[in-house]
Design a protein that fits this description.
The complex is a heterodimer of chains A (62) and B (468). With 62 residues, chain A is mainly alpha-helical. Chain A has a domain of 25 residues. Chain A has two helices and no strands. Chain A starts with a helix and ends in a 16-residue tail after the last helix. The model of chain A has no long low-confidence stretch (mean pLDDT 89). Chain B is of the alpha/beta class and 468 residues long. The longest helix of chain B has 26 residues. Chain B has one domain: Alpha-Beta Complex (Amidase signature (AS) enzymes). In chain B, helix 2 packs antiparallel against helix 3 and helix 7 packs antiparallel against helix 14. In chain B, the strands form three sheets. Chain B has an eleven-stranded mixed sheet with strand order 1-3-2-6-8-7-14-15-11-9-10, with helices on both faces. In chain B, strands 4-5 form a two-stranded antiparallel sheet. In chain B, strands 12-13 form a two-stranded antiparallel sheet. The chains are: A mainly alpha (62), B alpha/beta (468). The interface between A and B is large, with 33 and 40 residues.
């Protein structure tokens, strides 16, 4: 995911527009703090090697 | 027990036995509970929807049926209440939110309410919770915070905070909660109750407002393992209305509750589960391990990554569920919930798919441990209940937000749907702590047996809070 704090702020602005979310300026800081935590979690999970054959376990059954 | 006031503090099993034998009427039990709630709940704030008329009508119907010769059921006359994300006929299902109050009133009760009432229980009302269940504190900006009955200046824990508060305060012997990442086990620990988070897919979630379909569980909270087992057994059974429910036969826990720990192989989780917490959290685990003769340790692999993956899936699925509401009414959310959900909506899809794939790997890795052991012990929370309104705490020298981190020991377990009984431990005269008794998938019976044994041994206990 994004590399720097500036990137996260810019990412939040762009993503909000894409999602159709009207983010008030005073919410932005908390959203970026949350994104930082999520990015760390994503990096941790992403660093774990999984074989291409490792599929998710969806509940859906036909 | 003939004094009416005493019935408000009796265990569910005792009430059911007395009502079944005709020693007391369901109405008298219900009236005692209603009176205690009316007197003391303004201080605890466990209830958001108090339903005395419905409860008394139900109690009268039970008494009339018994007088007419009908068998009253295994939960005869047992008062209970439910986290307000369960549908209650005639009420909008608020799920701790302001926005949901505008929903159509529920046409019928949630599946588990219907099953408990079919077993003779009496619903007293809906209970407070953190907004949309995205919470570990029991605090709610719309309805006020549920206070910990053992110390009203402390958090109840959440998100099933009203459920923990109502059980610990002696308002009801039985409550229902939901647990996505720890929301039954955290308030059980902070309020000193027994809580059962069953295997993912075991109990029907039909008629409960969802949070994260991949991780949502529902289950009972009580002041004894026997009462948990009674309620659990009454709620078993397939329900086509829950698409995630597994096609398993009903496997009741009551028949083996007294079997003791016998040859069960019990281990203490090390590594991740032995770090970060305050010494008391580990002392509680050690006390339980001693009572069970559990000397071996076991490492749950990649628990930190499992927690991270649960965190990501929760944020993304929760955000997806609420996206339209975030677009249309963002100011009507609790700001702390809103900003987490908005960030969750922004997670790129590959991150979530990766977390789901990791979940499958982790399930297999942890599943392999249950070839060596039957039960794993771990702390339920890293500390005792924080102060109400406390935003951060220091764990292992690092200051962290309370709201997001109380569940660091519960998240890696619910992530793969393992059944857990949170048992309450009193190390001293202070606030309770909780220990997770974790069993293999579909072995709720084993976790409940161990919890019952610990209660018999005096290590786990859930006294009613002194509020009078």
């Amino acid at each position: 995911m994004a590399e720097t704090e500036t990137d996260l702020d810019a990412y939040a602005e762009a993503a909000a527009a894409m999602l159709g979310l009207a983010v008030e300026p005073e919410w932005r800081e908390t959203i970026v703090v949350n994104l930082r935590v999520l990015r760390a979690a994503a990096d941790l999970v992403g660093a774990f090697p999984l074989p291409d054959e490792a599929e998710a376990a969806p509940v859906f059954t036909a | 027990m003939s004094d009416q006031a005493d019935w408000s503090l009796a265990p569910a099993a005792e009430i059911a036995a007395a009502v079944s034998a005709g020693r007391v009427g369901a109405r008298a039990v219900t009236e005692a509970a209603l009176a205690r709630i009316g007197r003391l709940d303004p201080r605890v704030r466990a209830f958001t929807d108090f339903l005395p008329e419905r409860a008394l009508a139900r109690a009268d119907a039970l008494d009339a049926a018994r007088a007419g010769g009908q068998a009253p059921g295994p939960l005869a006359g047992v008062p209970f209440a439910v986290k307000n994300l369960f549908d209650i006929a005639g009420l909008p299902t608020r799920a701790g939110s302001k926005i949901n109050r505008g929903r159509e009133p529920a046409a019928r009760d949630a599946a588990l309410i219907r099953r408990l009432e079919a077993a003779g229980a009496v619903l007293l009302g809906g209970l407070n919770m953190g907004e949309y269940a995205y919470d570990f504190t029991g605090e709610n900006v719309h309805d006020g915070d549920t206070h910990n009955p053992h110390d009203l200046t402390r958090m109840s824990g959440g998100s099933s905070g009203g459920s923990g508060g109502a059980v610990a305060a002696g308002f009801v012997p039985l409550a229902l909660g939901s647990d996505t990442n720890g929301s039954i086990r955290v308030p059980s620990a902070f309020c000193g109750c027994f809580g059962l988070k069953p295997t993912y897919g075991r109990l029907s979630r039909a008629g409960s407002f969802p949070f994260v379909g991949s991780l949502d569980h529902v289950g009972p909270m009580a002041r004894s393992a026997r009462d948990l087992a009674l309620a659990y057994d009454a709620m078993l059974g397939l329900d086509p209305d829950d698409p995630a429910q597994a096609d398993r036969p009903a496997e009741p826990a009551g028949p083996s509750l007294e079997a003791g720990i016998g040859s069960l192989r019990i281990a203490v989780a090390g590594g991740y589960f032995a770090r970060m917490g305050e010494p008391d959290a580990f002392a509680a685990v050690a006390a339980v391990a001693r009572a069970l003769g559990a000397e071996r340790g076991i490492e749950i692999p990649e628990a930190a990554r499992a927690r991270a993956a649960a965190y990501l899936i929760t944020a993304a699925e929760g955000a997806t569920l609420h996206l339209e509401r975030l677009r249309a009414r963002p100011r009507d959310f609790d700001p702390a919930v809103r900003d987490r959900l908005i960030a969750g909506a922004m997670i790129p899809a590959p991150v979530i798919e990766r977390a789901q794939r990791f979940r499958r790997w982790y399930r297999d890795a942890v599943g392999a441990l249950f070839r060596e052991v039957d039960v794993i012990l771990a702390p339920a929370t890293p500390c005792r209940a924080p102060r109400g309104g406390q935003k951060t705490f220091v764990l292992d020298g690092v200051e962290l937000p309370v709201r997001a981190n109380v569940g660091l020991y519960t998240q890696p377990i619910s992530f793969i749907g393992l059944p857990v009984v949170a048992v309450p431990v009193r190390l001293d005269e202070g606030l309770p702590l909780g220990v997770q008794v974790i069993a293999a998938p579909w072995r709720e019976d084993v976790a409940l047996r161990v919890a019952h044994h610990l209660e018999r041994a005096g290590v786990a206990r859930a006294p009613v809070a002194t509020l009078d």
